[in-house]
Design brief:
heterodimer, A: mainly beta, Rieske Iron-sulfur Protein, B: alpha/beta, FAD/NAD(P)-binding domain, 6 domains
């Protein structure tokens, strides 16, 4: 059974942009933040806010289609899978997310669940 | 269960409605709308004698087609035209219609319903088809007279009455319903403004490109469309007078139509204790949590889905009727499509057009016809489609989508439509072009036939550009570029010369093409550029979006609305991102000068925010490292308080003006290079450029400010000022070219402004002045700046005009609270902080 956490509404995230959610150090894959993206067509995706390359904050990248370009070295990361696109190789962990009744819900990650 | 006194036997005492001899099972339908009546029709078609039927309706009408309220509003149809079932249908089928008397309670234990007037009727099977209620946004003034929804015939009557008096109307909601209301009111002579919260009209059905086309077309019809507009209040004294937006704008209106959405009407079911989530929960046979109570239509939730379109209703009604007649086929959910026609504007969407993993977009844009088509293919099957302007193939795509047909064989021609893709088996686009007759038209804009293009290619024009230059095919709107390329391939085989490098993979145009067309066609937004120039992706990529944003900003100073999401992080955050995700902050120090107040403020910021490092930059200012994104606005506020503004150390923009001390202090100084540098920086700061731009002013030929490796450099001499351009100290060091020598400080400033503007208008995005000048030649630049006095003056004037809009300190705006959300994380309702603290 997945725990869903209400993180706000679509309007809280800029179109073709992202917001972050912060939590304690190292609780998800050693990372500190989740990035929640809103695409041009209003889909929402959540990834750990770190590029697989040099841990660049993906939330600050340019969102195009269903990808984000990392702000540090322009790696393109697929928002749905977290996979680096093109010749680059690497993968950022994804977090399940859904929209329900105008709210955005993300799955409580397993490590957090254990901590709770 | 407050109705113990009114058992089923009470209902049987109603002689008019309940023939006592009728012993059939009694089906009571709550809701006389499209779903309720369609369900009864389906049932009658299967077994017309099985149930005795009673239908309750809230509205005082027979069953009418709610979808057709728009044509009634628009004056294209009358109410009689949209009636589905006349009184005769009810009487012919022995159906009791109780119209204008809504059911207000259900007693499941007693198996009765009670209506508003107090009438109680017993049932064996109950069907709830209450549809949906318009969603009314909870703003002040929502209950004022003159504020209505667009849901039923009464609303239409209200609108027609208001339209009779003329004046202004506001429609809140730019979805399907809102746009139809707006269109009808426009036709009825009202001046209509549509307020839409999202950035794209009909964002649930259309992608951004199609939404933009729709918006442009509606504006062309006289409607005012405000997207990204958030309603704060509806105001008026005793009656609606207008709508106020969150940004303070007020739009006067004597009529406000709220069409922001619908919600399943579930109150009755909820009070009856049925299981309700977003809608009334039903199984595949439309049975609710009570086996004797069924529900159908917009009020239900099936398998997590709620539908607001008519096609799923029909599917549900079939399954329901099957179930009621013991055939139990079961409803499996619906794939929906939307086809909208507002005053000749054709829009179609179906399936999932949002892309995603494994999805590929096939996009066709035909600017001259105003057509946009996008088909989304995944694993060789169509998963979605968005069509604008030409929707004839909507049904075909939808059919392929629903059947899940493998489209691999027709993929290359899919986007051209059924006639093309299914015709003659010419599946290779090259073969298709080769098969065209010689007089077939290739380029509609310039009237060039296939024979002429082939002759042109055969005469030695072996590239797309050469063909464009010679016979003009594909030289205008470019929509036939693919055809011409195929012809090149057919005629020349592998000898096709590749053209100049395109802007990015999203377009076949070069940077220069795009810039030229933006100006020539007076394009005003990124979606417009993408449409008119046939972009092959829905919203571009991280290469083209920043470039387009800059080109538009440069072409339309003061008018273009900068798109923050098309800027690199540094320009969006007004600071430089570092490898650990923190930012560095560089306040401007005019000409490299500073004072105790500024230095104290910087020192205070460093301590207050624990900045781990401060460094003197190469551009004669101080860089504060390790500032967190959340702290940036506060840091800027502190720096602003000491009189400092953004140094734009993060931008494709004017960076610094480096100076030496000049004649004021230096024993070799010939002119006041420091003072000149400050003046230049005051003139040029805040300007956006194709790339970063650095300036220096040295007071003598010893050149301590290193002016000869800057984009624009001044070297002062006894007799005046040498102006240098195109220097670079980066990977490839390039010394400047001497542009000219001028005798006064004002001339130095004027030439500087003109040179910057020439670079701004003509260099490609991300092209520094050094490669630009290598490309165009310094003689060209001299011709424009030195030899053409009128041209120089015009360039300078354009630069100064543009600067009149760009010298607002972006830090001050952010420090005052603008875009605060960019700096703050989201706060979950169940905060992680609590968990993290453990």
């Amino acid at each position: 059974m997945t725990d869903w956490i209400d993180i706000g509404t679509l309007a809280d995230i800029p179109q073709r942009g992202a917001r972050t959610i912060r939590f304690g150090d190292g609780q998800i894959a050693g990372a500190k933040e989740i990035a929640v993206f809103r695409t041009g067509d209003d889909h929402v995706f959540a990834l750990v806010n770190e590029c697989p390359h040099k841990k660049g904050p993906l939330s600050q990248g340019i969102v195009h289609g269903h990808s984000v370009a990392c702000p540090l070295h322009n790696w393109n990361i697929a928002l749905k899978t977290g996979e680096a696109q093109g010749a680059d190789e690497g993968c950022t962990p994804t977090i399940a997310v859904k929209q329900e009744g105008g709210r955005i819900l993300i799955a409580r990650p397993a490590s957090l669940k254990a901590a709770a | 269960m407050d109705f113990q006194n009114n058992g089923p036997e009470t209902a049987n005492e109603e002689p008019l409605f309940v023939p006592s001899e009728d012993v059939r099972e009694h089906l009571v339908v709550v809701g006389n709308g499209m779903a309720g009546c369609r369900a009864v029709e389906e049932l009658l078609a299967r077994d017309k004698d099985r149930y005795r039927v009673t239908i309750f309706g809230a509205e005082p009408y027979v069953n009418y087609n709610r979808i057709m309220l728009s044509p009634v509003l628009a004056g294209e149809k009358s109410f009689d035209d949209i009636v589905i079932n006349s009184r005769e249908w009810y009487s012919d089928n022995d159906i009791e219609l109780i119209a204008g008397d809504p059911v207000t309670a259900i007693d499941r234990a007693a198996k009765t319903v009670t209506s508003h007037s107090g009438r109680t009727v017993g049932y064996d099977k109950l069907l709830i088809a209450t549809g949906s209620d318009p969603f009314i946004i909870p703003v002040p003034g929502k209950d004022l007279p003159g504020v209505i929804s667009f849901r039923d015939m009464k609303d239409v009557d209200t609108m027609l009455e208001a339209a009779g008096k003329g004046g202004d109307a506001v429609v809140i909601g730019g979805g399907l319903l809102g746009l139809e209301a707006a269109h009808g009111l426009t036709l009825r002579g009202m001046k209509v403004t549509v307020i839409h919260l999202m950035d794209t009209l009909m964002e649930r059905q259309l992608d951004e490109a199609a939404g933009w086309l729709l918006k442009s077309a509606l504006e062309g019809r006289g409607q005012t469309i405000l997207t990204g507009a958030n309603t704060e209040a509806i105001y008026g004294d005793g009656r609606v007078e207008g709508v106020r937006l969150k940004d303070g704008r007020e739009i006067p209106a004597s009529l406000v139509v709220m069409a922001v959405g619908i919600r399943p009407s579930t109150a009755l079911a909820r009070e009856a204790g049925l299981e309700v989530n977003r809608g009334i929960k039903v199984d595949d046979h439309m049975v609710t949590s009570d086996p004797d109570v069924l529900a159908v239509g917009e009020c239900v939730e099936h398998d997590g889905n709620v539908y607001g379109l008519v096609a799923p209703l029909w599917d549900m009604c079939r399954s329901l009727a099957d179930g009621l007649t013991d055939q139990h086929t079961g409803y499996k959910g619906s794939v929906t499509s939307t086809k909208l026609k507002v005053a000749g504007l054709d829009v179609f969407s179906a399936g999932d057009f949002s892309g995603g993993e494994g999805c590929e977009d096939i996009v066709l844009r035909d600017a001259s016809r105003g057509v946009y088509k996008r088909v989304i293919v995944k694993d060789d099957r169509i998963v979605g489609a968005v069509l604008y302007g030409d929707t004839v193939d909507g049904g075909w795509y939808f059919d392929l989508l629903r059947k899940g047909e493998d489209v691999a064989d027709i993929r290359d021609l899919l986007i051209f439509g059924q006639a093309f893709a299914s015709g003659g088996g010419a599946l290779d686009p090259k073969a298709a072009v080769a098969a065209l007759s010689d007089d077939a038209e290739i380029c509609g804009c310039n009237g060039v036939s296939k024979g002429q293009v082939v002759a042109c290619i055969s005469a030695g024009n072996g590239s797309l550009d050469a063909v464009r230059a010679t016979c003009k095919a594909s030289a205008s709107c470019g929509s036939c570029t693919g055809l011409v390329e195929n012809l090149l391939a057919v005629v020349l085989g592998d000898d096709v010369k590749s053209g100049p490098k395109t802007m990015c993979k999203c377009t076949s145009f070069t940077h220069d093409d795009v810039r030229r067309e933006i100006v020539a066609q007076n394009m005003r937004s990124i979606p417009e550029v993408m449409q008119l120039l046939h972009w092959s992706t829905p919203d571009g990529c991280s290469s083209c979006r920043p470039a387009l944003n800059y080109y538009l900003l440069c072409a339309l100073p003061g008018e273009y609305q900068d798109d923050q999401q098309s800027r690199f992080v540094n320009e969006r955050m007004h600071a430089n991102i570092q490898k650990d995700g923190t930012y560095s902050v560089v306040p401007r120090m005019w000409g490299g000068l500073t004072n105790p107040t500024e230095l104290r403020a910087i020192a205070d910021v460093v301590e207050k925010y624990n900045a781990p490092m401060v460094k003197v930059t190469g551009g004669q200012r101080l860089d504060i490292f390790g500032i967190r994104k959340e702290d940036l606005p506060a840091v800027w506020a502190d720096l602003n308080a000491a009189g400092m503004v953004s140094g734009h150390a993060y931008g494709k923009s004017l960076r610094t003006v480096k100076t030496c001390v000049g004649s004021e202090w230096c024993r070799f100084g010939t002119q006041d290079s420091t003072g000149l540098g400050v003046k230049i920086e005051r003139m040029t700061w805040g300007s956006w450029m194709p790339h970063k731009f650095k300036i220096a002013a040295s007071g003598c030929p010893r050149n301590c400010a290193e002016a000869t490796i800057k984009d624009f450099g001044v070297v002062c001499v006894d007799s005046g000022y040498e102006l240098h351009v195109g220097g670079n100290g980066g990977i490839h060091v390039r010394a400047t070219d001497l542009l000219c020598k001028v005798s006064t400080e004002q001339e130095a400033l004027d030439y500087c402004a003109a040179f910057i503007q020439l670079y701004r208008e003509e260099a490609r995005y991300l092209e520094r002045t050094a490669p630009w000048i290598e490309r165009v030649g310094v003689e060209y630049v001299k011709g424009r700046i030195v030899e053409d006095e009128t041209g120089r003056e015009a360039l300078r004037a354009r630069f100064l005009y543009s600067q009149s809009f760009s010298q607002d300190d972006p830090w001050a705006e952010r420090a005052a609270g603008a875009n605060a959300e960019l700096h703050q994380p989201l706060e979950p309702r169940m905060p992680f902080g609590v968990i993290a603290a453990e």
